[in-house]
């Protein structure tokens, strides 16, 4: 097993499950991550072995999973300086004839059910290493199959609940600057979901606030109930009393629709967490000096924000080039 010192402020490059299995029990205060979405992108990583018998002398039967080529010539998605992630190349995969292990890249499975099974295995291991009062935050987008939404975020949420996780919130990440799309037979999707899970009912959480935006009732900070009400001693009657319209100077309890623009930075791969998206979860879900883990570290945004907010960080990233760039980026954070 890795020691606490080894996992603190370090990125491990390699297979996600092999590395997660080396983390000590109850060692992580908070996990926030965004797994590869189903069927939408290729991260150009080496195929990994999933499922089956680890002791099997595999006899692989290869096949090609078709990528996404539609819309390649559309001017609407050819954005200068941006990756065009409507284009996904074909991928070579294989099943073992003996033990039915699958050889491929996470997110490129031949069926969404197999993809979800792999996510459940990953987050089962996350449950082991997360502290009892720790929190898990998962950003997950949906995919289309035969013109229909698959419902992957909803299927994932329900299965996580069935598996023992407590889903505290379903947050809508609204993207005001969503990329244009060439589709003409449905609306453009401009949001993703961010799920907030905990292992038990009592989890570490620091309340977050947002400003009051609606006008004050009659322009007054205090509601003056001078007259009696016809509702008497009912709930409505009890509510008719002198009280502050805005009782908390910090603002109101933060809501669950967050409008945050997508962002990018030079040298990063094309799926980058906006720093603003994860600032609130880290402030709410991890104590100062605690450890925030991103098992799909990518460009290292979780590490950058955690360091800036005086938290420790840890990460796992399959692509060694991404891992190297992420470390350099985090080290540049003051």
List the topology elements:
Layout: H1 4-7, E1 10-13, H2 16-20, E2 28-33, E3 48-50, E4 60-65, E5 91-96, E6 102-104, H3 112-129, E7 130-140, E8 144-145, E9 148-149, H4 152-162, E10 166-174, E11 191-198, E12 209-210, E13 222-223, H5 235-239, E14 243-244, E15 252-253, E16 257-259, H6 275-285, E17 291-294, H7 301-308, E18 312-317, H8 320-331
Parallel strand pairs: 1-18, 2-7, 2-17, 10-16, 17-18
Antiparallel strand pairs: 3-6, 4-5, 5-6, 7-11, 8-9, 10-11, 12-15, 13-14
Helix pairs in contact: 3-4, 6-7, 7-8
Written account of the structure:
Helix content is 22%, strand content 24%. The chain is α/β, with parallel strands linked by helices. The strands form 5 sheets. It has an 8-stranded mixed sheet with strand order 1-18-17-2-7-11-10-16, with helices on both faces.
